[in-house]
Amino acid sequence: MKNAILIFALLLSTHVMLNAQHAQGDFNLNLGVGLLPTFGNGSAVLPPVGASGEYGIQDDLSIGGYIAYSTYKENFQTLGKFRYSYIIIGPRASYHLGNVLKTPKEVDPYVGAFLGYTIGSTKWDGAGTIPATSSIGGLGWSGHVGARFQVSDNLRLFGELGYGIAILQAGISLKI
What we know:
Elements: H1 2-13, E1 27-34, E2 43-58, E3 61-76, E4 80-96, H2 98-101, E5 107-126, E6 135-150, E7 155-162, E8 168-175
Antiparallel strand pairs: 1-2, 1-8, 2-3, 3-4, 4-5, 5-6, 6-7, 7-8
């Protein structure tokens, strides 16, 4: 965790003269991996992965969507195992703070909100009668804070804190 925070801080403090701040008409596709999962307490079959896309409707305001997935298993020795799967999907909006904070052009800090639907399910694979299995779902909301750092004209690295498929996500962002 300390290393992730250190890398995030270094990315924010590095100065490369590129133009990364979010502008009207920009579309960014973020692909990330969750580092602090919010669902599951077994061993990960697939670490939390998520994707979001956002379109700049104004220079400092973007709207888009978010989708994420994770799956875990929990073994009960010779009896069998449960497999838990979670999907989160919904719209999100972000306010980009680069102009307000006067950050270097290669850094795009932002805050935002997400309103989405969570779908969770369990599956039993084992001997004997099937223990209670269920599916859940519900509407939820969250906030997020993050930053993107421009590496090249169309490639950025991002880190984001917020409640989604994971509390901390990191990955790449492609400007399309």
